[in-house]
Structure formats: C-alpha cells, structure tokens
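Each field is listed here:
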Amino acid sequence: MNAYSKSADSYLVQRILGAGPEQQAALIMEAGQLHLGKAIHALSQNNMAAATSSFLRVSEVIVEATIRLDLEGGGELAENLGKLYDFWNREIVAGSYARDLARLGAVVQAMGEIRQAWEQYHEKKMKDGSLSKFQTGSQVV
C-alpha cells in the first residue's frame, strides 16, 4: 500500500469516527466501495496479493455495517439490510473466485446506492431541523 492509500484510509477513518449515525453508515459504504474498487483493479491486473488484501478489507467493512444494524429497533429495514449484506458477502466470494468483474462491480454499485440513501436521509434530517449542520455524533463543533 502506498503512502497516498494509507493517508486516504486514515482520513476516511477520521471522518467515520467524527460523524453521526447516518453519516457513519454512508462512510462505511464509501469504504466498502473504495476497497472493492481496489480489489477489482488488482484482480484485473492479476495482482492476487493486493486483491486478497482488498477483499479482506471489504469483508471487514461489511461486518462493521452488519454489527451497526439495530435489529431490535430497526425493524424490517434493519433485517433487510442484514440480508443484503449477507448477499454481498456471497457475491464477493463468488465473484472473486470466478474473477467476475461485472458481478463485483454490481456490488460496488449497490453499495453506492445504499450510501446515497443514507446521505439523503441525513440531509432530510438536517432540513427538518432535527440535526444541526455542524453536529457530529453527540458533539456540536
């Protein structure tokens, strides 16, 4: 991993730690897209070591997204997101094994759609006045 990749990853981690719940969910999806994109690129370059490393990072991202689900209070939405994340894991394993870049690309696109939905939800909350524009987590900066 080059210095730029390390600094980009560190920056993303800092953004996640300083964000509210919806922003965190969106940033987690961004991290998934980032690492799955790296995996696809490495796979297309036949760099299996880099691809494997990136696939492991994507798996960690999906685990993080899954453990953040509020299965008790989130109802059907949380349950469906859990099923979607399980599906993504299966698709990533099958796609990486078959070197099916289109299949992997479909997961990147789906992550982007979920990311966008979380971002829109956050923006709606801000417009409704239930969240200050400068609120990060439980702090106001």
